[in-house]
């Protein structure tokens, strides 16, 4: 299996920073577990949404290049889908990387644009080579002001 070589050596990630797809989608998207829910459980609970709203974390350098200000609605997209949520501009994420909390419910409009901030609309169905899990940590996207 070329993704799991017999002898250890560096294997570039599919949809990683060295992928040719970065010409079209230059930002690496990460997801994480939040402090207000476990995966999608309790996503619709308004009290827990007050704790932490669904927003796209973006570094100030990347936001400035795209004319994005704090709180602006942004479109996170690739060939698989589009999600539209507010931007959270923060130094807590490095340039070239954006992120959003996992577990948001899909909330599509009439054009299929997700307004819930569901990262799954952007992720691949490609399975990881060893565990055969989802490959949600290697996702390339572009972000534009909505």
Description:
The protein has helices spanning 46-51, 60-65, and strands spanning 27-32, 56-58, 73-78, 81-89, 97-101, 139-145. Strands 1-5-2-4-3-6 form a six-stranded mixed barrel. It is built from two helices and six strands, in the order E-H-E-H-E-E-E-E. The protein starts with 26 loop residues before the first strand and ends with a strand. Strand 3 (73-78) and strand 4 (81-89) form a beta hairpin. By secondary structure, the chain is mainly beta.
Summarize the structure.
The chain is mainly β. It has helices at 46-51, 60-65; strands at 27-32, 56-58, 73-78, 81-89, 97-101, 139-145.
Topology at a glance:
Elements (H helix, E strand, L loop, with lengths): L26 E6 L13 H6 L4 E3 L1 H6 L7 E6 L2 E9 L7 E5 L37 E7 L1
Parallel strand pairs: 1-5, 2-4
Antiparallel strand pairs: 1-6, 2-5, 3-4, 3-6
């Amino acid at each position: 299996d070329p993704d799991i070589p017999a002898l250890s050596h560096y294997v570039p990630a599919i949809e990683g920073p060295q992928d040719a797809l970065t010409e079209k989608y230059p930002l690496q998207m990460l997801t994480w577990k939040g402090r207000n829910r476990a995966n999608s459980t309790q996503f619709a609970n308004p009290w827990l949404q007050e704790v932490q709203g669904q927003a796209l974390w973006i570094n100030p350098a990347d936001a400035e290049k795209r004319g994005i200000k704090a709180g602006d609605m942004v479109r996170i997209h690739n060939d698989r889908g589009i999600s539209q949520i507010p931007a959270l501009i923060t130094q807590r994420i490095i340039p070239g990387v954006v992120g959003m909390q996992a577990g948001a419910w899909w909330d599509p409009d009439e054009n299929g644009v997700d307004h819930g901030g569901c990262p799954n609309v952007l992720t691949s169905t490609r399975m990881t080579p060893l565990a055969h899990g989802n490959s949600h940590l290697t996702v390339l996207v572009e972000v534009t002001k909505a």
